[in-house]
Amino acid sequence: MYNELVKILGENKVSKGISILEQFSHDESHHEWVKPDVVVFPESEEDVVKVIKFANKNKIPVTPYGAGSSIEGNPIPVKGGIVLSFQNMNKILNVYPQDMMVEVEPGVLYKDLNKYLKTYGLFFAPDPGANASIGGMIANNASGTRTVKYGATKDNVYEINVVIPSGEVLKIGNLARKSSSGYDLLHLFIGSEGTLGVVTKAYLKLVGRPAEMSACIAYFNSVEDAVNTVAQIIMAGLDPAALEFIDVNVIEMLNKEEGLNLTEKPAILMEFHGSNKISLEEDIKFVVEICKDNNVISYDLGVGLDERERLWEARHKTYEVILRTNPGKKALIVDAAVPISKYPELVIFAREAIKGVKGYIFGHAGDGNLHAVLVGDKNDKKEWEKLEIANDKIVEKAISLGGTATGEHGVGLGKRKFLEKEYGKNTVELMRLLKKTIDPNNILNPGKVL
Amino acid sequence: MYNELVKILGENKVSKGISILEQFSHDESHHEWVKPDVVVFPESEEDVVKVIKFANKNKIPVTPYGAGSSIEGNPIPVKGGIVLSFQNMNKILNVYPQDMMVEVEPGVLYKDLNKYLKTYGLFFAPDPGANASIGGMIANNASGTRTVKYGATKDNVYEINVVIPSGEVLKIGNLARKSSSGYDLLHLFIGSEGTLGVVTKAYLKLVGRPAEMSACIAYFNSVEDAVNTVAQIIMAGLDPAALEFIDVNVIEMLNKEEGLNLTEKPAILMEFHGSNKISLEEDIKFVVEICKDNNVISYDLGVGLDERERLWEARHKTYEVILRTNPGKKALIVDAAVPISKYPELVIFAREAIKGVKGYIFGHAGDGNLHAVLVGDKNDKKEWEKLEIANDKIVEKAISLGGTATGEHGVGLGKRKFLEKEYGKNTVELMRLLKKTIDPNNILNPGKVL
Questions:
Q1: Interface pTM (ipTM) of the complex?
Q2: Its pTM surpasses 0.95
Q3: Closest Cα partner for B191 from A425, A197, A173?
Q4: Which of A82, A357, B125, B223 sits a CA distance of 20 to 30 A from B377?
Q5: Which of A179, A367, A396, A438 to mutate to test the interface with B (most CBs of B within 10 A)?
């Protein structure tokens, strides 16, 4: 397969070097590493078409690979074959400031993109924390701290080019702000984790950098008080740009490892964006009232710019810090989401469910999205099984509350078992049927999602 | 077929009365009326399943029918067979005020729903103008005056139940505020115009009634000035809750027919929603600056509540009034949308393109959505052809600007010819393949979209 790919693409776009195969054998999850047979580095849509056609003809698995920052095994080439790395398709093609839109190749990295857009006063809002690739974010429907205000990736894409297994290039979506034209294939491909098609270009929706920003942190005596506050802020119709819950042991860890100086109590971290100070102040007054109703211990309403950046940086690094402080251990991550009124119930349930395992609870609370990072020794079957049981319990609880098995990390390898529980057999059968229709040879990222 | 359906459902849910067949033979468009063979009135999901199973087994066309308010022929039973009317599945099942969500049957009407929700301080935001059914809005991905702020129907649905041609009931979506779980079938069904499945239940996202509202109207010497103002308001990152363009002859007509007292100049009509007066005032100050930069003649910043309601009522009735003032004529409606920076170009182009036909231009300008209602005698082939040519020109222009053939009315019968121009052959072929996969006997709303 290597020789044939070299013939098709040229030598410098194909590798079977052992260190390269190693590099593309894993993501940031606990899932087992699997080396591909070969890694290709396309430089254009035409290159991608050539690879897909070759793979489809020869029924060779193809796993698209962005930055490798996912945490559910999404880009691990579990069936071997070809990894399609987009690291060389990383150009920002055009910025359309008037339409608040940018045209990019899939290998562009999230943080690089936003750094570049700073001079335009614009940014791409879904904030996965990690420096994910745009292609990976689209594949995964990534989201994060800013989603509570600005939506997930699926809410921020106008148009994509996709190569489907037949080798055809499809233009999906259009550049208008709304459309009722034909079937919405855009959302079918977004979040399909590279199992239906490979994105080669995207037009992303940008938002203006807010004129005013305000960050606050509030501490509570109990987790109940903290998460009730979260739910009440959302239910009051306030519009935070971030609303995070952080449990005590996470704060303790961040204080120690990242040199923060936070009160070691259950906390909520908020950010508000607006066009003027006065309206932000009004919102924050309201937030303070809600905090007081829930027995807040203390709060800091005017977290300064430097401290804010340090806080978010630390928050984004939580997963990394957890792994670092637990050397030799692996982490299983709960990523359930529920309607906001059920969020306190889910968090309390999760705290119970993880008793007896090492676990850290935090999450994008404003979206009803709970993370519990459960840490253990994967080689210790008994220990790891406890983690799995806790995860299962929490996810099943979330589903029973009308929620979802994965708020933002995708199904990948680890959440497949919950799909039928969440949607029912008929719905998942239809997903399977669509996969089979679009990818009859099952070449695209096989072993994932379904 | 009538007798068999009576056997399945009982006599009072099935009709072949001539006046009933007539009633369900058309929508509000110019498209030719076609009578179904029979109309059924299901009262439950089980009834729908029975009808679909019967129809699929016998390869009988089934056309779902909501309020009949669509304007692109979307629910006309062009192949005869069964019309599935949802007028008796019109219950509001549950309101979840804390989660700002409502659970409804598909026959619930938009205006009735919002009247009911008033006491909760909530509303379902997509505003199609007509008193459409929720099922029809979902089928069509309806939108309207409020979409510029709150999104289209597709942005405001959490979960639906769908009956697919096999007779299976699918739960699609979930109630969490975000999810990355499996393929996004929700958006595939929303906007598929009843050609893939029949919605039997929906959980809708609601928004809080704004604490403060402000309506303004501004008049300009030229269409150019008015539409440039629109584009600049959006590009400035302001967040209007409505931003409509109305051309002179529409204003003249509304003054005369609806007793309004507007200045007879190209106008833009705006609404702003906010949590406090001060922030609205800030926004409006900014709007005034932009208007002045574009040679505004005059403006009214504080349109009172009564007048505002009268204005919106009149705006919503524009289509109806056009038909009333042109008795015996039919209307062909342009519904193109483009990126906002291209909106002025499209409007100017449209004004040129409709010279020589009777036409009225207005639209949801903040979304880049242009309507031109072209009026003529459908029996006069030559006259009607002129309308068709003007429509074709405008739509093709919109597509060449990166836009869409239909911003909100759907493809129905009239926009099918543009689908390949908008997306390319490969993409439309994939839509056809999905249709064939889900509905192999082509029973659901045949003759539409594709």
A1: 0.96
A2: yes
A3: A173
A4: B223
A5: A179
